[in-house]
Amino acid sequence: MWSKLGTYAGIALGGLDMWTNTLFGFSFFGTLKHGKSDAASLEPAAGHKPIDYPKPDGVLTFDRLSSVFLSNTNHEEDQPVHLKVKDMALQETSEYEVYAGPSARYCPAGVYEWVEENGAEKFVINAQNCVHCKTCDIKDPNQNITWVPPQGAKGRSIRICRRSPDRRM
Amino acid sequence: MAEELPERESMEFDVVIVGAGPSGLAAAIRLKQLNEDLNIVVLEKGAEVGAHILSGAVVDPSGIDALLPGWRDEEGHPFKTAVTRDRFLLLGPSGSIALPNFVMPPLMNNHGNYVVSLGNVCRWLGEKAEALGVEIYPGFAASEVLYDDNGAVIGVATGDMGIERNGTPGPNYTRGMALLGKYVLIGEGVRGSLAKQLIAKFGLDEGREPQKYGIGLKELWEVSPEQSKPGLVQHSFGWPLDARTGGGSFLYHLEGNQVAVGFVLHLNYKNPYLSPFEEFQRFKTHPAIAPVFEGAKRVSYGARAISEGGYQSVPKLSFPAVLCSAVRRGWSMFRVSRAHTMRCCPACSLPSGSWRPLRQGVPMTRSPKSRQIGATARLDAI
């Protein structure tokens, strides 16, 4: 992970590392320590400014929902939410109040939303949008979200039509 | 709650493989080649093999050469577009510089590789596996690892179906199946839900660096014939990311006027306001990129976390079930890298990498010595 030194120094050193590996068969640099997990790398919103992203034009750039429509990961809506939040209160006190709700931005499928309801912010999970990327499981600053596989097709069962094993165990 | 549920029907196999990706399918094929009598099942959460694979990747064929020699002479294989040209761009807000190819380390050279639809590669591998007698069950996700009384892995269970939104069984409720295997191979891909449980339960990441991830976003486009340059592989770094945020883009020209474009952003970013999705959308508007998509149509979209931690973050990959009973020994293996890394790391390309431990290091007895890689596998004995 040379890139922790910044993109440009990282690419130059990474390139040098790959060359020395190729020419001499070993790395002068060994391996680097990563230190923090990706979840712990996120910093409180107070030290950062919101980013003003351009609006999608619908031709070259798009929003999340029209993208999810093309993603080939449809689930039935009538099933339990497959994104398990361990502690809902923590979402509000930390994910929203400290980190300004990053799930609404790191999720590439618009699964997570903070919506105002009766003057309070409410955490909404649109599980049917999920494209199974598992970023929430990785990046949530409190490791409060767990991705589990959603239910498959309704009522289907594995057909049993295999040869019976006649070998000994 | 658990005792109210009906008991699962169970099926027994020699090897249970979770995930019909390149790794799981290659392992299934290799095992059948070693011993055609093995009963092998592959579970896949997608509705069909390849359904959840993000299309478009550069693949080093050395793994396929080792797995299926002679594939080049076959009709209908998915490796249609050889890489003809590599381009590496440094993007600024309004301009771009191409890095000259001679400074690029040979590891980053894609000649001899192919631009493929990885979904098609999986479908092709799936057909090969089924022809060899591997049973593939698409539409079934493994939701739980099953253990025996001693805590040894004995198989996996598919999820229950027909549970209503409130968590209670509905009219179409069907209990999941237990798939028991002498060996269980976990090929779920990055941050798999079963792998996560196993890593925690057996402490497989002990003494390892934390795993690092990136998020990859990808779109498949159908471009106008004038813009199609099959075999061109282009990567970029720089804009729209600042110098402290790691990531970059890829743009692969496939056959049939298709272009796979994507963006990878390292998930160690600090700013909670950052949006990988919007960075990707903005990237496409760069003057060096946008012309490719003039008059083009977007066909599909997807996103997936990828692992970037490298060697120092690989958890322990195989283990005999720690408290294994005298009769049944389980072991599991994780694939940590994905096909994308085949591009920059041919040495650990997926198909060969995934079956190598099966040949070399299957721990068959409880003796601690057999845990060493290099212990001879006796797959024909099971």
Report on this structure.
- The complex is a heterodimer of chains A (about 170) and B (about 375).
- Chain A is an alpha+beta fold and about 170 residues long.
- Chain A folds into two domains: about 1-35, no CATH class; about 35-45 and about 55-150, Alpha-Beta Plaits (2-Layer Sandwich), CATH 3.30.70.20.
- Chain A is built from six helices and four strands, in the order H-H-H-E-H-H-E-E-H-E.
- Chain A is globular.
- Chain A starts with 6 loop residues before the first helix and ends in a 22-residue tail after the last strand.
- Chain B is α+β, with helices and mostly antiparallel strands and about 375 residues long.
- Chain B has a single domain, classed as FAD/NAD(P)-binding domain (3-Layer(bba) Sandwich), CATH 3.50.50.
- Chain B contains seven helices and 20 strands.
- Chain B has helices spanning about 20-35, 60-65, 120-130, 195-200, 275-285, 340-345, 350-360, and strands at about 10-20, 40-45, 55-60, 80, 85-90, 95-100, 115, 135-140, 140-145, 155-160, 160-165, 170-175, 180-185, 215-220, 230-240, 245-255, 260-265, 295-305, 320, 330.
- A seven-stranded mixed beta sheet of chain B has the order 6-5-15-16-17-14-18, with helices on one face. In chain B, strands 8-2-1-13-10-9 form a six-stranded mixed beta sheet, sandwiched between helices.
- The two termini of chain B are about 35 Å apart.
- Classes of the chains: A alpha+beta (about 170), B alpha+beta (about 375).
- Chains A and B meet through helix 1, helix 3 and helix 6 of A and strand 11, strand 12, strand 14, helix 5 and strand 18 of B.
